[in-house]
Structures are given as C-alpha cells and as structure tokens.
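RECORD TYPE: inverse folding
INPUT: structure tokens
STRUCTURE:
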C-alpha cells in the first residue's frame, strides 16, 4: 500500500496512481446503490435539459437560441443583445463562484454527478455494457481473436456511440442555428458548409471524448481538475477510505471475529477498484485521478451489508474526520464564497429586473443641418430601436423638454419581437433664431400599450447662429 495522500496534497499525487488500461480502456464492473441512482437522476435531468430545450418553442420561435447572424440571444421571453452581454458574463461568474463554493464544501461532486464529460461517458459505458456484456464478458471479448461475433458487437457499439455523438453535435449546433431546419437539412443530406462542419466536429468530439478518451480527459485535459485541489481544506468532503477502520485488510469468513484475527473491516475484495472508472484504488488515499463519482462507496456499502458491518468504510469524509476529529461545516472560506454568491445573485436579479425592455440609440446625420421647404433649420437623425420582448410592440416617439422644436417623420411604428428597426426622423427648429449653436435634444419612445416600457436617448441639435 502506498502512503496515503492527504486531501491538501492531492496535487502531488504520484504517477503510480494513474489508471490501469488495457486494449479497450478500463473495464468497470456494474454496481448498484444510492449514489449510482443519484447520478442517474442528475444525468437524466441534464439529458432532458440539453436535448429537450433545443426543441422547445416559445411564442413562435425557438425558446433558447444564440442567433449568431443577428448577434442576439433568445432565452424564452427575453432577448439579449450585445449590450446586455455583461449580464451573461455576470451569470458565468456566478456559476464559477457556485462551483468554487460546492468544491470547498464537497470536493469533486460536480465532476462525479453533473459534468457533461462524466455524464456522456457513463452513457457510452452503458452502450458498451448493452452491446458487449458485463465486465468479465468485455474482458474476454477484448482478449479474444477477431470473429464475426466480436466484429458485430464492436460495430454495434461504435454505431451507437456515433449516433449519440451525432445527436449531441446536432443539438449543440442547434443552439446557434434554428434546430428544426438544421435537422431537416441534415437528415435529407442537404446540409452543407459551416453548419455541417460544426455538426461533424461536435459528433467527433463527443465520440472521442466520451467513447475513447473518457477519464483521460479529466486526468490530462481538464483545467478544473488541476486547480481545484487548492480549494480543498481539511474540512472538505471527499470520497475517502477510512484506514483506521479498514486496516488491516484481509479475507475472513462471514460472521467470524475479525478483530480476534487482527483484521479491520476491509475484506480486500477489490470491488471498489473494479467499479472505479479511472482504475484507481481509493484505499491508497485521495488521488488526483479520483473524479468523485462515488461508485466505490456503493460497491463497498454493498459488501458491508453482506458482511453485516456498518456502511461507510468508504464514504464522503473530511480529512479532520479521518483523523478522528469532527468536520467544521461553517468556515471562513465557505462563508466567503456563499456570501459573495448571494450578493452576486441578488445584484444580477436586480439588474435583470431593471433591464430596459426597449433600447433606443439616436445617431445624428453627418451633415450638420439643412434648411427645409418652410425655411426652418432642420437636423436629420437615425433612430435604432430594439424590442427586447417576445412580442411585437407598437411604439410612440416624441421629443422631451424640447419647446421650439418639431419632430417630423414617422412618430408611431411597430417593431417585431426580439427585433431591431431603424427609423429616420428629422427635427425642425420653429424659432427664427436658435438659442445656441448646439443644444441637447431628448428623444423618448414608449410602448403604446404598456407605459412602463420606455427609453430615452439624447443627441445634439446644431444650428447656425447667424443666417
Ligand atoms: S470494496 Fe470495501 S471491503 Fe472491498 S476492498 Fe474495497 S474497501 Fe475493502
Ligand atoms: S476512487 Fe471511487 S470516487 Fe474516485 S473515481 Fe474511483 S470509484 Fe469514483
């Protein structure tokens, strides 16, 4: 047994803890248990969310769509334009802080239960089990010479993987280009160009990452796996083996007095190793290769049940609890993350609440001024009006605090849901002489059906002092 690695020393886990591979990856054993059921629940929710949301429609358009061509992001009733992307950045920062807080509290639960890499890998492993059998059958198949049976099973497995990869690639691209026409064109072989490239790219990425590389992605490519160890402290929960209870390990007859034989609770059945997707032995201590999937907990709890021992020889434990102390739940770092998270969520909620649902930009024509048919000084403007709501809006345009000026052109217009309209208007000076050569003019648009939806923007009115 190698020296046990302390939680706070994960980053220096020795190379000997790298997974043991054979010609077709690690063959994990099937198991059942509480954490497996939890993981299936999380994975199911993620699949429903990912594959289902792309097909949802909301008020006549795709509910979630990042429309790259028009630089806008639809999410149900709301449409976000580039000027709103600060809110999306804030959302990403909140997600990052949430992940940090969870990691400080419970280690790699994100990796084990919700990370798409792990989730898709579990799905691909399930396909492998369906097509090639359980662990022992797969080991025998891998070692067997090529035959029609082996070829057929392998072709079926890889076909299933490719089908899931294609569905994943199609769905992912479908969040950036409307998915219904995309799918129709793909399945009638009419899809080409950039869209086809990206669908095939993400198909291949899914197939390679979840089918061929699997946990190697977590071990060698994922940056989060590298830096998360700095977030661990002695009270962080992580999947761990309790050596004080388990050692000395060794086989014994059920019902025999293990203590009298100098044995701990570990019967050295190695089931915890056989179910591990990264092929490590958790009894060697916490290792970088452990993705926190808790499969070894389920396997060991099953053994403990059969032996009549208490569950939890492997479980979620903190370093303090492993050393015989108690875990401190409320600690400064965790409180810091939680407080920052609450403040950021409240600020984002407020910003979303106050976000104007119509945006107005006023661009003054490059010509300074002109004289109209009535002999009045006139300035030309182009108004850019963005409707950020999910239905067409009828707007009224007027000047604000602009005595002596007259607005000419279209003052009532409609903008489609989530769309932008350009409205040219002109403003004429009614007075013979201007008060100054440059004055501020306020433009206001308001929704004719909902007075709370309004926006004001300023521009300049330029006129000659002497004519
Ligand atoms: S499953 Fe439990 S009893 Fe079996 S080897 Fe692992 S720790 Fe020991
Ligand atoms: S050691 Fe346990 S929790 Fe860690 S990856 Fe292996 S089975 Fe999952």
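DESIGNED SEQUENCE:
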């Amino acid at each position: 047994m190698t020296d046990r690695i302390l939680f706070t020393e994960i980053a220096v886990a020795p190379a000997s803890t790298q997974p043991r591979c054979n010609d077709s990856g690690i063959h994990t054993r099937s198991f059942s248990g509480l954490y497996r059921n939890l993981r299936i629940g999380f994975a199911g929710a993620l699949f429903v969310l990912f594959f289902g949301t792309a097909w949802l429609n909301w008020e006549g358009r795709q509910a979630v769509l990042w429309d790259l061509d028009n630089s806008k992001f639809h999410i149900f009733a709301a449409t976000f334009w580039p000027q709103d992307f600060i809110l999306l950045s804030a959302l990403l920062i909140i997600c990052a802080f949430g992940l940090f807080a969870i990691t400080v509290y419970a280690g790699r639960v994100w990796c084990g239960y919700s990370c798409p890499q792990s989730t898709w890998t579990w799905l691909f492993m399930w396909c492998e089990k369906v097509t090639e059998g359980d662990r022992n059958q797969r080991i025998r198949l891998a070692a067997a010479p090529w035959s029609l049976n082996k070829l057929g099973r392998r072709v079926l497995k890889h076909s299933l993987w490719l089908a899931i990869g294609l569905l994943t690639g199609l769905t992912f691209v479908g969040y950036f280009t409307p998915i219904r026409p995309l799918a129709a064109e793909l399945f009638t072989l009419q899809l080409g160009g950039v869209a086809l490239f990206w669908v095939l790219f993400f198909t291949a990425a899914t197939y390679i990452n979840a089918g061929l590389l699997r946990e190697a992605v977590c071990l060698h490519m994922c940056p989060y796996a590298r830096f998360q160890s700095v977030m661990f402290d002695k009270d962080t929960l992580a999947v761990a083996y309790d050596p004080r209870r388990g050692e000395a390990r060794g086989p014994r007859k059920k019902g025999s007095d293990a203590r009298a034989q100098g044995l701990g609770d570990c019967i050295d059945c190695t089931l915890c190793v056989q179910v591990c997707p990264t092929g490590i032995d958790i009894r060697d201590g916490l290792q970088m290769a452990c993705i926190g999937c808790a499969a070894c907990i389920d396997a060991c709890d099953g053994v403990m049940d059969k032996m009549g021992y208490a569950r939890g020889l492997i479980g979620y434990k903190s370093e303090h609890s492993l050393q015989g102390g108690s875990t401190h739940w409320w600690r400064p770092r965790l409180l810091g993350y939680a407080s920052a998270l609450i403040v950021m969520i409240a600020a984002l909620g407020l910003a979303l609440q106050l976000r104007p649902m119509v945006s107005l930009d006023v661009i003054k024509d490059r010509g300074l001024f002109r004289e109209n048919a009535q002999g009045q000084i006139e300035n030309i403007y182009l108004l850019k009006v963005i409707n950020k709501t999910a239905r067409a809006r009828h707007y009224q345009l007027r000047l604000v605090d602009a005595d002596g000026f007259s607005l000419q052109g279209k003052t009532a217009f409609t903008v489609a849901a989530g769309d932008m309209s350009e409205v040219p208007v002109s403003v004429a000076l009614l007075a013979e002489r201007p008060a100054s050569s440059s004055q501020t003019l306020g433009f206001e648009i308001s929704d004719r059906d909902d007075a709370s939806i309004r926006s004001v923007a300023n521009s300049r009115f330029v006129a000659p002092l002497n004519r």
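NOTES: The mean pLDDT is 90.
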